[in-house]
Each structure stands twice: as C-alpha cells, then as structure tokens.
C-alpha cells in the first residue's frame, strides 16, 4: 500500500527543508528559493494530509486480517486414525492443514532439524501447531520445547493432545509454554475455539499496527505544518 512508504521519508523531508533554508544564506536569489520552498512545502503538506489513515479510510480495511480459511495448522500425530480425524476437524473449521506422522517430520518441515525447510520460506506460514503427546522417538512435549527454542517459531501457539488425563503432565506442558492441552478425542468445539482465539489475536494485532501508523502519520503532518520556510 502507499501509506507505509511515506513513513521512512520523515527525516528526509525535514532534512530537505533545512537544506533549502540554508541556501537562502548562500544566494542572492532569495525570492526564488523562497518560492521553491513554499511550493515543495505545500506539496508535502498535501501528501501528508492525503496519507493520513482517515483520508485513506484504512481504519475499516480488513483485507489483511486473517480469515478462517487462511489459518494454517500443522498437525502432528503418529496415529493415522487420529491424524485423519484432526485433519477433518480442522478442514471443517475452514483451516488449511498440513499433517505429519512424527515430531521428527515436523522439525524437518519447519527446517529445525539442521537442514532447510521442505517448503519455501514464503510458503511456511504456520498459525498453530497441534501435536500428540505420546509419540515414538520424540514426544509432543519435547517437540514443543524445540519449537519454543527457535527464534523463528517460538511465537507460534502449540497445542498438545493426549488420550491420557495425567494432571502433572498437563501442568508441565502448560507451564512450559503450551497454548492448551486437549484430551482426545478432540471435539469440533475445541478446534473452533482455538480458531476464533487466533482470529481475535490477529485482529488485535492489526488494530495495534493501524493505530501506530496513524500516530506516525499525524506526527509527520504536524511537523510539516509547523515547519517554517
């Protein structure tokens, strides 16, 4: 969009004004410099005004907000029956799903096994990871720990699933960073609750970004209005 492009030029605009003002002391054609400065100043004022969020009506633009069909979930389970079941629940909830059969496969997919990811970086947008707890080789808890140690993926919510209702295990997972701990069989209501929570978080993040941009645009506009040519 056009709006973010103006923000990096804030210091450049002010620097340009100072340069023009300094030229008035080095030339006898002060009236020419003054006219040029006024024209440029007026243009920048108009530009800053047009770029303000209320003029672009960006506050109501939700095109970049996440939507259910865009949420990408990585599901990890060594049981083919459970994999098919959770995949079905996620697709019914309008989520994009990638399923793998082990924690090792999940690490390979994320590129956390020491090799490159199995997909391109731009395609690797994961909104949620759901993993079984009891798996051969590496448990879901150990997988979560690996993910949380990664600077690239530590912010991705990890939900652990298990058919065993063992309270110390549940408490340990939640204390170590799990977003939730679901008992199998996972219910459709659980998946929809997770989806809605993610969408709400995305909406709040979007509003915070828009508020920050509005403050920056208003700051540019105010400084240009106060500038003396």
From TrEMBL:
GO terms for cellular component: nucleus. Residues 72-199 form the Response regulatory domain. The keyword Kinase does not apply. Keywords: Cytokinin signaling pathway, Nucleus, Phosphoprotein, Transcription, Transcription regulation, Two-component regulatory system. It holds the Pfam family Response_reg. Its main location: nucleus. GO terms for biological process: cytokinin-activated signaling pathway; phosphorelay signal transduction system; regulation of DNA-templated transcription. The modification 4-aspartylphosphate is found at residue 132. It is found in: Nucleus. Belongs to the ARR family. Type-A subfamily. This is Response regulatory domain-containing protein. It comes from Brassica oleracea.
């Amino acid at each position: 969009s056009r709006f973010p492009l103006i923000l990096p030029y804030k210091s450049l605009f002010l620097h340009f004004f100072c340069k023009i003002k300094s030229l008035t002391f080095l030339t006898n054609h002060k009236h020419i410099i003054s006219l040029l400065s006024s024209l440029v100043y007026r243009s920048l004022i108009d530009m800053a005004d047009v770029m303000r969020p209320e003029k672009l009506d960006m506050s109501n633009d939700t095109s970049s907000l996440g939507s259910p069909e865009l949420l990408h979930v990585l599901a990890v389970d060594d049981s083919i029956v459970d994999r098919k079941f959770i995949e079905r629940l996620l697709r019914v909830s309008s989520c994009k799903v990638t399923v793998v059969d082990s924690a090792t496969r999940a690490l390979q997919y994320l590129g956390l096994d020491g090799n490159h990811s199995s997909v391109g970086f731009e395609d690797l947008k994961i909104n949620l990871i759901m993993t079984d707890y009891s798996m051969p080789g590496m448990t879901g808890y150990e997988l979560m720990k690996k993910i949380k140690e990664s600077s690239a993926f530590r912010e991705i919510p990890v939900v652990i699933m298990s058919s065993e209702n063992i309270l110390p295990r549940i408490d340990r997972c939640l204390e170590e960073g799990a977003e939730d701990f679901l008992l199998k069989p996972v219910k459709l209501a659980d998946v929809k609750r997770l989806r809605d929570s993610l969408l709400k978080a995305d909406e709040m993040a979007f509003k915070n970004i828009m508020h920050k941009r509005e403050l920056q645009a208003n700051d540019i506009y105010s400084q240009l209005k106060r500038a003396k040519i």
